[in-house]
Amino acid sequence: MTNRLKKIFAVVIPASAVLAAGAAWFVTRLPASSFEKTGSQEEPSAQLVARGEYVSRLTDCVACHSVPGGAAYTGGLKMVTPMGAIFATNITPDRETGIGAYTLADFDRALRSGVAKDGHRLYPAMPYPSYAKLSDDDVKALYAYFMKGVPAVHQENRESTIPWPLNMRWPLAFWNVVFAPSDVYRPDTSKDAQWNRGAYLVEGAGHCGACHTPRSLAFNEKGTDSHSAAFVSGALIDGWFAPSLRNDPNTGLGRWSEDDIFRFLKTGRNDHAVVFGSMTEAFNNSTQFFSDDDLRAVAHYLKSLPGNAQRDGTPWKYEPTQAAVVQPAGRQGIPGAQTYMAKCSFCHGTDGRGQGQWVPPLAGAASSLVPDSSSSINVTLNGSGRVVAAGVPDSYRMPSYREQLSDGEIADVLTFIRSSWGNRQPPVAKGDVKKLREQTVPASSSPVILKTR
Amino acid sequence: MELNINGIQHHVDVEPDTPLLWALRDDLAMTGTKYGCGLAQCGACTVLVDGQAVRSCVTPVEKVAGASITTIEAIEQDDLGKRVVAAWVKHQVPQCGYCQSGQVMAATSLLRQVPHPTDADIDAAMVNLCRCGTYNAIRAAIHDLASGSTDGGA
């Protein structure tokens, strides 16, 4: 070996070793927590536990960390990723299988940095990039609730089905550097207090972007706050198209007033829409429990997000039902019209306008105006889940047509709906119905309802 | 909530989202209108609202306050309705009978809209379900009515 080569090795090998050691340290290190200095925990006050319970409604932990029929917060919800399925974990204070051994700092690292007590990185299915914005006070309250307000349940976590080497967690440390915001919410001093509270709830605690913001190839949300035009601009997730929450008149909240948004989140319904798909769960266990002030803040903030006319298209305007559709003989020449009149019109109206706040309109509905037809197909195949507002189950619910209508019939009736009453979407493809039929299951009429007292 | 049913004003003390069917059956004891599926799928609960066949199980009372509601109890007060019932008797349409108040309402509504319906019209409009399979008898009765051979006194 030449001297020159020896010299190179003498530099490269130690340097690589240092880099490798550095990387190894970096991907397993415990990130900083504001609570590291917090010593042995004193007994939290009942007031703090109650505050934590409220924060848990804002953050909607139960949505993923529970399954129908299971005990609250014991995890088990299956989330399908392109690499395999992962399962939400037990976050009850059980010391062996839950988070009973977590200190406040451990809890904080999991919640806001996505790092478990043993140093492994959580998948960003856990919305820690949003929870990063939670205030220290809210984290502390949430910890008090999970330690003292939630019963411990011994239940082992399920292993993910992601195969090696894709199941290695350490690369997520680098993902976090690039994609995960790491700072608590900083108020925008140019905006009022209500707006800032709304931003904290939407961008942070409520993690609305987890469903409503489109993701890029690395699965990161394309925008995490009001400065990004992609933030809550609508996204396809788990067979549903979560619509835009921006001021898009067709596919977003452009035609909704702040009061409309407030009522939707408080009662699950308004004259524009009724919660369905995954939003039913978010309503049942989370948004209806927000204080009125917090809901008004959410509405105020959302109405400040500008729409995108290019994406949204020409604003929708109602057009009456074609006369032929109302005639028994006439509608037989229009594909989907007979199915609409026989199966849909009794609830949604021959005019497509629904029945006030009780049955949503299809005319001008975001699901009818958004180019992606997934939500229309999914709700037709599977119906809607039970909406439980203030403890009272809904009177009217979309039934599942999976067993009644063929792929072709569903494609036809949805094509009819999405091209009537001023809706102007291209035909729904039979193949898309077939695909979603295989990937989805009927909505449950026994939803997870968390009772905290 | 004020409801005009069969020409009589009724006061019902119910929530605005209560299905009309519950107001009829539970509050007003008008049990001629039947509960079948509760999801607008079968048509057993069909009543007429301003002459239109609606499924009362999915109709919030709030939506029909002020409208003119007709149920099976009063269908024979209407000339056409009376003829429909007579044709139903003549053709001995009902078997178990559970769906028939809805079928009579649907047929009345169809004949009001299309006095001489074709088979295709009947297929399109008479989408109420019948577990006994009385569809052929229903079709015959409607054709009979359309041809005018069944009058109210038959």
Automatic annotation (TrEMBL), chain B:
SUPFAM superfamilies per UniProt: 2Fe-2S ferredoxin-like (SSF54292), CO dehydrogenase ISP C-domain like (SSF47741)
Listed A to Z, the keywords are: 2Fe-2S, Iron, Iron-sulfur, Metal-binding, Oxidoreductase
Q: Keyword Oxidoreductase: yes or no?
A: yes
All residue ranges annotated as the 2Fe-2S ferredoxin-type domain in the record: 1-75
Locate the transmembrane regions by residue number: none
Keyword check for Metal-binding, yes or no.
yes
Coiled-coil stretches are: none
* GO molecular function annotation: 2 iron, 2 sulfur cluster binding; metal ion binding; oxidoreductase activity
The UniProt entry, under PANTHER family, shows: BLR6218 PROTEIN (PTHR44379:SF2), OXIDOREDUCTASE WITH IRON-SULFUR SUBUNIT (PTHR44379)
Listed name of the protein: (2Fe-2S)-binding protein
Q: Which species is this UniProt entry from?
A: Acetobacter tropicalis
User: Which lineage ranks, top first, belong to the organism behind this chain?
Assistant: Bacteria, Pseudomonadati, Pseudomonadota, Alphaproteobacteria, Acetobacterales
